[in-house]
């Protein structure tokens, strides 16, 4: 603790309190910054997941449309359906 006395300007209690207060405030600021960084990373992951979900939904819709078209084509060519035999 002796090495801090020159920084405290004589070692007064108010000066020590001010040093501790500044330390806690800067620590709190760093914690908030870390928390915000974590939030930003989580939001970015959520955005990517949402984009992947939308791509999968589109692929599913395209596959369903292709299946429906194939079923219509097959039904046209089935015997007794009135289509080409």
Describe this protein with a few key phrases.
85 residues; mainly alpha; 75% helix; 0% strand; rod-shaped
Describe how the helices and strands are arranged.
Elements: H1 13-76
Overall 3D shape = rod-shaped
Radius of gyration: 34 Å
Counting H and I runs of at least 4 residues, what is the number of helices? 1
User: Which sheet architecture does the biggest sheet show?
Assistant: none
Strand tally, please?
0
Q: Mean pLDDT across all residues, rounded?
A: 83
Low-pLDDT runs of 5+ residues are none
Can you offer a commentary on this structure?
The protein is mainly alpha-helical and 85 residues long. 75% of the residues lie in helices and 0% in strands. The protein has 1 helix and no strands. The chain has one helix at 13-76. The model has no long low-confidence stretch (mean pLDDT 83).
Entry summary:
The chain has 85 residues and is mainly alpha-helical.
């Amino acid at each position: 603790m002796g090495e801090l006395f020159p920084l405290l300007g004589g070692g007064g209690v108010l000066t020590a309190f001010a040093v501790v207060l500044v330390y806690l405030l800067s620590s709190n600021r760093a914690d908030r910054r870390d928390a915000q960084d974590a939030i930003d990373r989580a939001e970015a992951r959520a955005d990517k997941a949402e984009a992947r979900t939308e791509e999968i939904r589109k692929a599913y819709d395209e596959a369903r449309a292709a299946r429906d078209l194939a079923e219509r084509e097959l039904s046209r060519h089935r015997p007794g359906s009135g289509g080409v035999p």
